[in-house]
Specification:
The chain is α/β, with parallel strands linked by helices. It has two domains: 152 residues, Rossmann fold, CATH 3.40.50; 66 residues. 41% of the residues lie in helices and 14% in strands. The strands form two sheets. It has a six-stranded parallel β-sheet, with helices on both faces. The longest helix has 22 residues.
C-alpha cells in the first residue's frame, strides 16, 4: 500500500501547463458539429476557458438550436471526436509549454509529502494527448476529466474520493488541497471543496476578474519555482 501523502495538488492543463494554438479549439468544435451533426456553425467569440468538454458541447448545442435530448445523445460521439482530433493535432507546433512547468513539477515530484493529480475539463484522451507532447503525464498519479460531468465543480469531490482511495486514508482536510489553475472556474472549483487556489495569469483571465473568488496567490507564470512551492505549502497543516 502506498504511503499516505499529506498534500493533494490538483493541476488544470489548458492555460496552466500548456496553451493550444490560437483558434484551434474553435476549429475542432466547428469540425465536430459539421461532421457529426451536419451543422455549419460559427463559434467565434465563444469562451472555452475553464469549462468541461461536456459543458462546452452542451452550451454549443443550445447555441445552435439543438434539442436537449439530441445534445445528450451527441455527447459520446463528441467526446470521441475531440479525443481523436487532439491525439492527431497535438504537436510542439500546435501546443506551447508554459514557463516553469517542468521545473515546478520536478520540484514537487521529488517530495514525499504530496500527490500530484490532474483536474481538467479535457477528456482523458485529450488530456493525455496534450501532456504527452512535453512528457508531463509521468508526474501525475491520477486525473479527473471533463467527460465525467457537465459541472466542473463536481470534479473536485471526485478527485478527493480518488485520492483517499489511492492512499487508503480518510478525506483530505481542505487546507491540504490546492488547485493550481488559470481561470475563474479553477478558483470556483477550489472554493467548492474548501481548497486553496493558486492562479497563474497565463490564461485568458485577468487578475481583476477574480474579485468574487478567493485566491491564495497569483503568479504571472509558474517560473518562480521556489516561490510557487512556498505558496503551495503556506499554512499547510503537517
Amino acid at each position: 500500500m502506498p504511503l499516505p501523502r499529506r498534500l493533494l495538488l490538483l493541476f488544470d492543463i489548458d492555460g496552466t501547463l500548456v496553451r493550444m494554438r490560437r483558434g484551434l479549439p474553435r476549429e475542432i468544435f466547428e469540425a465536430m458539429f459539421r461532421e457529426e451533426c451536419s451543422l455549419e456553425v460559427n463559434l467565434k467569440g465563444f469562451d472555452y476557458s475553464g469549462k468541461t468538454d461536456r459543458q462546452i458541447v452542451q452550451e454549443l448545442g443550445a447555441r445552435v438550436g439543438m434539442d436537449p435530448k439530441a445534445v445528450e445523445e451527441l455527447h459520446p460521439k463528441a467526446m470521441a471526436y475531440i479525443e481523436t482530433s487532439l491525439s492527431r493535432m497535438m504537436t510542439p507546433e500546435s501546443l506551447q509549454l508554459l514557463p516553469g512547468v517542468h521545473e515546478l513539477l520536478q520540484a514537487l515530484n521529488s517530495r514525499n509529502d504530496c500527490t500530484l493529480a490532474i483536474l481538467t475539463g479535457n477528456t482523458p484522451g485529450g488530456a493525455k494527448a496534450k501532456l504527452d507532447v512535453f512528457g508531463l503525464s509521468e508526474y501525475f498519479k491520477f486525473g479527473v476529466y471533463g467527460s465525467q460531468t457537465h459541472d466542473r465543480n463536481l470534479l473536485g469531490p471526485l478527485a478527493l474520493d480518488m485520492a483517499s482511495k489511492l492512499h487508503g486514508t480518510d478525506a483530505f482536510a481542505p487546507n491540504d488541497v490546492v488547485v493550481i489553475g488559470d481561470s475563474i472556474r479553477d478558483a470556483a472549483c477550489a472554493r467548492a471543496i474548501g481548497a486553496r487556489a493558486i492562479i497563474t495569469l497565463t490564461g485568458s483571465s485577468l487578475k481583476e476578474a477574480f474579485v468574487h473568488e478567493p485566491v491564495q496567490r497569483f503568479f504571472d507564470d509558474l517560473s518562480e519555482t521556489a516561490n510557487v512551492v512556498d505558496a503551495i505549502y503556506q499554512n499547510h497543516s503537517s
